[in-house]
């Protein structure tokens, strides 16, 4: 569903995936996330958090202001729902 980009060994997101920068301050980690994850209510909450923090017109890669470990937990939840 989503992995840190460094573990994937690619610079570009494959078709059906979106690059996302996760973290607060200067501590950012890049993930590549399936577009299916964007439908999950927990992921939508993270998108709303990003909109509150940065607005709806972010330039460049989508940035989500949360801890990377929390983001990974949300991805696990979205994977369970998307594969069911």
From TrEMBL:
Traced from the root, the source organism's taxonomic lineage reads: Eukaryota, Viridiplantae, Streptophyta, Embryophyta, Tracheophyta
What GO biological process, any one, is recorded here? Answer: response to auxin
Q: Which family does it belong to?
A: Belongs to the ARG7 family.
Q: What is this protein called?
A: Auxin responsive protein
Organism listed in the record: Musa troglodytarum (fe'i banana)
InterPro entries documented for this protein: SAUR_fam
Q: Which Pfam families match?
A: Auxin_inducible
